[in-house]
Amino acid sequence: MLVVGCGCGGGGNSGGGGPAKARLAWDGTPVVRASSTGARVLVGKVRNESSRELRLEVPQVALVDRQGRRLKSTAVFAASFVRSIYPHNGVQPAQPQGYPETERRRVGFLAVLGASKTAPLTVSWLEGRGRAATRVVLGGASLPVPQAAVSGGAAPPR
Amino acid sequence: MRGLSVRGFTIGRMRALAVGVALGAFALAVPCAALGHSERGTQFPDPNQGAFPAFHASDAPSIVVCRKDTNQRIADYEGALRQRNQRLLRRCRFANIQRAVDVATNGTTILVMPGVYKELPSLGPPPAGCEATYAQVQSGNIVLSYEQERQCPHAKNLIAVMGDTNDNRICDSKCNIQIEGTGASPEDVLVQGNRFSGPTQRLNLLRADRADGIVVTNMKFEYSDFNNVYFLETNGFRFSKVITAYSREYGILSFTSDHGIYENCEAYGNGDSGLYPGSGPNARHGQPDAHGHVYGILVHDCDSHDNTMGWSSTSGNGTWAYRNKFHNNGAGFVTDALVSGHPGMPPDHMKLSENLFYSNNKNLFSDGPIPPGTYTDDTQTGRDEYCKQPVSQRDLRVVCPSFMIPVGSGLLLAGANSDIVENNYFFDNWRLGTMLIYVPAAVRGENDPSRQSDVSNNNRQQGNCVDTRPVSLDPNQVDFAACEGTHDRNGVDFYWDEQEGTDCPEVDQDPGACSDASDGLGNCWAGNQGFDGGIYTSDPPPLVLPACPGIDVPRPPNGSKSAFLVPCVAWDPQTNTDPPGCETPPGTSWFTVPPEPQP
Fold it and tell me: Looking at chain A from residue 138 to 157, which residues have their Cβ under 8 Å from any Cβ of chain B?
């Protein structure tokens, strides 16, 4: 269980306004799936263990190795495939930051967690040479990455 | 081909029930507000009204439209075609199609003579009273009420046929209009948009809105900023012998419409899909309406190729596609429950039969720098970089994908119920022949906990021929009862995430909480054949795929498969072109064209 500093901008505002401290933890144990390409997909749920609402956005999520170095990764507050209603090839760049809040939540860019509530979190990365991911950092919180990965399966032999 | 009342001559035994169900659904239709771009809330037309339109008789009242150079364009015509066009030219009164629409009355045929129609008067400044509406659209808020659309038809459209004068959603003016090219082929009558020209751009080339009975035939449309041809809340439309190309998004899109026909069409170069019959008629749920029509949207003899998707349809209900070709797209055919705001969710009862799905391996997400020289749609590297450029700097004929897709797939059912996929050919799709996956209801905005697993059930894939290229690629020359041709493999023929949804009566049938119905049906596969009578390939393996009628036991998806779908959500053509872990099957990125499978 770790402490998140929120209310500091960057989408990490608490519902009550002003700086606040909140606790964030995994709800259950996340599962890490591995594929033959070296891809890893962590599927878990984060739980707000504070008494205040948390607003979490994808840019707040970082994956780091044992030395605290950031690894290239992708995160989404979702547990299933979804896509935006806005096409990505238009005149205006379709960035989720510009979506209405309902759409930001629907596509997993934003998670709004009331006290004791959970949100799915999926993080993916390519396992690098000797640089194993060890923690997911959410704002000020740091959540452990399970080191045992489950095989994601492979295409059947022909 | 099963006799399912395409032409409406059969009144089914379930007629009385269907009428009741349909009317109930009609009354309960839910307004919505989005289809890739925002749109006003719409409702389904009454399925027991309206009809599939017939072509007009040659002596129907008509208005002729021509261009200054029409005379030269018809000079090479011969025989009866030449005589007809010369005769029509003498009757020509208008130089723009919209002007003819403006004076047309119910049942009018608008004869459009050979020429290029840019509809420049529609690109002018806002007419008196429309200044605020135009300003609203220019500001990016493009959701207009029906009345705004009718009062200011060119705020978003080059040509607008608005059929409802009193906003009761029933056509009472300009109904049963036929817009007909008079050339030797569709290319001879070209409606051309200017999708990159800044403040004069229009989203749609032709909008038919509550324009019941409209027929569009023998024409070509290209270069719209959103929809080349758009049918909305229209009960009865026919899109026949039309070519639609190079729209930023959709070649043709229909939405909350009924009694619609797409036929003998060609669609290519569109950034989303060539054909989009979305929010298909929802009321029938596999039962015939009062006219005996089980399917309200019919799509046949169309050729959709070289798009991001040959077909896409969110909430594709009650639609039957037959004898079409979907090839050389990024993905051949996608129907889904992936977004919110589409009436008729969850989608059910689509039928795909006697179609060809092949070679959908278009390299739309290629890596590397933009190579020197002219970038074309066939360039095999640098697509990601090319598509990062501002729209105005891209070649209109180079497809930049609107969404992420698993390139190399023939058919993707992403949240479908009771669909029938039978007697089709799937070959040379280097990732997957077909892919069936589940989508939780919350994704479409349905948060009832009892309905979260209410999709991906009872879909039947049977009698399909895979890994086999028929001798002819003309669906009318292919024997779909056989499975004959040369060996041409898919990556994996049938892919399933192994989820079986709950059988919930839809909200329009039972708005309460879902209780799983025991109907004895489940997702199933039967009678599918590989090359030369061999076994097909699948994931899970063929022995694990349920035989029809399926196993009626809800179960969750296989986490080892579904987990690798989630990172795809993060795809962003500007900032994240290859999100790691977006793989189907696991180990194969969506954004890399898989290697061609070898025999």
Answer: 150-156
